[in-house]
Amino acid sequence: MRKLAAAALVGVLVAVLPATAALAADPKPDIAVTSAADKANYAEGETFTITVTVKNKSSVDAKRVHYTGGDSEGVDGVAYGKLSTGFDLAAGATKTVQITGKTNHLAWQSGYGFVAFSLAADNGEANDADNTTSVRLLVAGAFDDLGGYVFQGESSGAEWTPETPGVPGVKVVATSADGKTKYAEAITDAKGLFRFARLPAGNVLLTFNAPAGWKVLTGENGEDDHTLAQVRADDSDEPRIFVPAKKVAVSSPSVSPSQSQSPSPSPSASAGPGLSVTGDNTAGPGLPVTGDKTMLLVGAAAVAVAVGIALVLVARRRRVHLQA
User: Fold this and answer.
1) For 186-293, where are the alpha helices, taking DSSP H only?
2) Of 96, 210, 216, 310, which is most buried with the most CB atoms under 10 A?
3) Backbone angles phi, psi at 172, to 5 degrees
């Protein structure tokens, strides 16, 4: 029985090992895709062409690379061409194909349309991270108003209601999404409301500059002072942007000890004829005036000594004269 069991185990190993080795030796292709539109801006109803670059990054031939699904908005009649029927792509090879379509009125209202899609091969995909691509098609021409509220809240997740107090005096600057072109600026009123008139449709960047004692809470963690907003040409004039702000302590400017002491007035002094005493010592030659009286005392002592010597000499001359 032991011999039969051993023989059976050997048979299983002989059958399984080749299959395992075959699986390990069967890598899948790695399809990477990028895309680019043929123009920077389009008009409503204009035909666009998107060039799609497909690369097989692996050492395995890709069998029937094809479009597998995606999404689009603001476009009509997207034709995927060879990406619909599929094509083989050798290991390490690159191929470019084109897809076409037209922008529609929704793209004009929003300022852009887009096309996004994924590709795959029939014999699998080694890496799903780079087989999806998207293209934004800018459509200029539409303008509309944009408004919102800066309201009192303790976190970036605070919700606005009509009863929520606003934050007045917040400066809001509207620029292009990349921040390079300034469109307009506004100041929130007593209710925290701000409004821009006639901004171009599309994404705009709103930057908030709150007055002292307030911090605007935008971004995922409330640490930003800006946010992207969508301008859309439609019939609604309702405010669309709601930004919380919380009260913060106002730090007083620090004052150094030297700045806190007021300068002492310059001492006044009178000078005799021929002496000049000024605060900045810019006048002609004169005796220096210092805070102590050491030099004056030395001068007085010298005069006293000289007078004493003179009196002694006069007395001696009178004595000699009387003796004669």
Assistant:
1) 257-260
2) 216
3) -120, 125
Pairing mode of beta strands 202-209, 171-176: antiparallel
Helix (H) or strand (E) holding 83: helix 82-85
Spatial CB neighbours of 294, under 8 Å, sequence gap ≥ 6: none
DSSP state of 139: B
Expressed in percent and rounded to 5, the helix, strand and coil fractions of the chain are 20, 40, 40
Q: Which CATH number describes the domain made up of 143-247?
A: 2.60.40.10
Where does the pLDDT of residue 170 fall: very low under 50, low under 70, confident under 90, or very high at 90 and above? very high
Tokens coding 317 = 């001359």
Place of tokens 């302590």: 249
Every domain of the chain with CATH number 2.60.40.10 lies at 31-138, 143-247
Better-predicted residue by pLDDT, 22 or 55: 55
pLDDT in tens, 41-88: 999 999 999 999 999 999 999 999 999 999 999 999 999 999 999 999
Average pLDDT, the chain: 80
What average pLDDT does the segment 152-177 reach? 96
Cα gap 306→84, rounded to integer Å: 122
Give whole-number Cα distances, 50 to 54, 82, 132, in Å. 13, 13, 14
Rg (CA), the chain: 45
Count of CB atoms situated within 10 Å of the CB of 16: 10
- CA-based nearest residue to 74, from 44, 50, 107, 101: 107
Please report, to the nearest 10 degrees, the dihedral formed by the alpha carbons of residues 185, 188, 193, 199 taken in order.
0
How many Cβ atoms are within 10 Å of 144's Cβ, its own excluded?
19
**CATH code linked to domain 31-138:** 2.60.40.10
State how far the Cα of 25 lies from the Cα of 21, in Å rounded to an integer: 6
Contacts of 217 (CB under 8 A, 6+ apart): 153, 155, 156, 158, 243, 244, 245, 246
| Partner residues linked to 128 by β-bridges | none
Is residue 66 within 8 Å of 33, Cβ to Cβ?
no
